[in-house]
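Run log, item B.
One chain of 188 residues. Sequence copied directly from the ordering sheet:
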Amino acid sequence: MTYATVTAQCLVGIVFAVSAVAKVRKRSAFAAFEQSVSLVTSNLGQRSPRALRTLALLTVAAEFCVPVLLPAPVTAPAGCLLAAALLMVFCAAIAGALRRDVEARCSCFGAAGAELGWRHVVRNGLLVVIAVIGATGPARDATRPVSGLAVALVVAAVGAGLFVRFDDLVDVMLAPSGAGRAEPDFDR
């Protein structure tokens, strides 16, 4: 197994673990996710609140399955493929909602997400590529040095942090020069 495969699997596992936990850590976070599901899937016609809750619960359950499958060499490719499949569904649902001018918030990592936009399709598309790298890499090799695996885990953790905070990073990068910056008060 290459370090790229290990890094990809760890990154995907961390992102999905954070996403799943963020949705269930508070009742309000899950309610916000349910509301997003309702808005994003509004083109499917009228659905009962029970059907929407079931869809939201199944989504979170599938998200929890990803990090559970990744540690075992036999199931790691399946975990990455599940992640890639979920992410492709998310891309399609978000793109469809954006084409219909649906205004919904991204509740991927909790209740306080940004308004859904093409940035979320890009983020999920990048994660699909990473998940495919994790799924298609060579089988695990016990001869890899622990130091290399530790570096791969650190890189995965940093990368996962960037994906989890993607909205904030995009906002900072797209903010007009000087916007949101306080002028220093040198008179104190």
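Observations after the first pass:
- The chain has a mean pLDDT of 86.
- Helices lie at 3-24, 27-40, 49-69, 76-99, 118-136, 146-164, 166-174.
Flagged for discussion on Thursday.
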